[in-house]
Amino acid sequence: xxxxxxxxxxxxxxxxxxxxxxxxxxxxxxxxxxxxxxxxxxxxxxxxxxxxxxxxxxxxxxxxxxxxxxxxxxxxxxxxxxxxxxxxxxxxxxxxxxxxxxxxxxxxxxxxxxxxxxxxxxxxxxxxxxxxxxxxxxxxxxxxxxxxxxxxxxxxxxxxxxxxxxxxxxxxxxxxxxxxxxxxxx
Length: 186
Description:
This protein has 186 residues and is an all-alpha fold. It has one domain (2-184). Helix content is 83%, strand content 0%. The chain has helices spanning 2-17, 22-31, 35-59, 68-88, 96-109, 111-127, 130-154, 159-184. The radius of gyration is 16 Å and the shape is flat.
């Protein structure tokens, strides 16, 4: 049972970190510069996950869902800017410190990351053990090291295409998030 709880946490961590989206697009783009650049973005996003974990853990009964509208709009606008920045970036552009803060700010404003914590995160905290939480962050750590390594190792040949696809994914998510922030909650 102990191993099962930990393994389930790893799977949940990969479900949070692994799906294609804005953060992974930036990780892929930054990983073309170096594995450390990509991992730094992932570490920033994981710090945002830890922040959400703490918020939900301590304030899970007090979160007002209507605040998500503003988070969607801010997150969507930020991602539009980020998509533009990805298209205009040249290697190497950002410091390792800047990459961490990009990942952190994306994570803190990413409605999908927030919604994950409001849904799967609540389940994790209510139904599973502390080992599942350890497994969750282990799964995220596995992702933020393995994904940049893979992109860095095999992605140089496809740098231009990765940059275009990364920016396109960010733009798509930005429009989708803005749609929900502006239209769905009007």
